[in-house]
């Protein structure tokens, strides 16, 4: 007896089961590939994150002992103490208001494990030195702190207020030299703004640049300059020791615990902060940039950093992202306007 022939419905069912197995295997293959690919990506990303948290280099574009150097080393201590980054080294690259360091840093394309300090002083240096590189050649990361300038005179000076200083300055600007940081630094800019407010031609005033507040004080003590301008914390010890008198400070309001009037209080519309921040190298990938931002954010929230802010009389002005980029653009315009008045 002949075997019965398969019915059409049985054949279609078999073919359907076959197609389902084929499609199922194909889907399994795609899912497996995605899982494996995702694992590879995650592994690669984790490795990159681990590398950044293993070792970082912070460039201070100034000499040892100055403001940028202190700023970088305070970060170094906070990062190490809290285990945020295992090894952190600070490298000094001084010169030309930070633009020597900026020039070198701009060539470090894609070197994510290196960051550089920046701030008001560098913006002035870029313009005054006709620097071929600028802030557009790096990746702004975060603004971390601001400090403010104090104007001081020797303790035995007959000047006891900023009005006294203005009166003496007006008599003969060329014979009333100021001293402070580099040409185009915040110290120089504060002097220029004060001159504008007082009706004095800043370009006619002698300005003696130095590399630190300590050197500026020596210039005043030797009677080579009549007044010195620098960050308050660089003068604090000498003010407390009674060797110099602080006549005014460039802050928007009095600093806590410091009995020094602001220039605004004294009737002069001069308010300028020496902001300090960090930038990442050009060519830093978006993934590495986000990890660096996480590292800096963690550091800014540590007890060690809070202590550094208090000890150095720095204001916590943490700012990142588009807001920070817009801030830099506005600062560049303001610095350019002030420098134009100096006719340098």
Automatic annotation (TrEMBL):
> Which parts of the chain span the membrane according to its record?
22-41
Keywords per UniProt: Membrane, Transmembrane, Transmembrane helix
Please give the family membership noted in the entry: Belongs to the UPF0065 (bug) family.
Record-given protein name = Putative tricarboxylic transport membrane protein
Q: Which InterPro entries match?
A: BUG, Bug_dom1
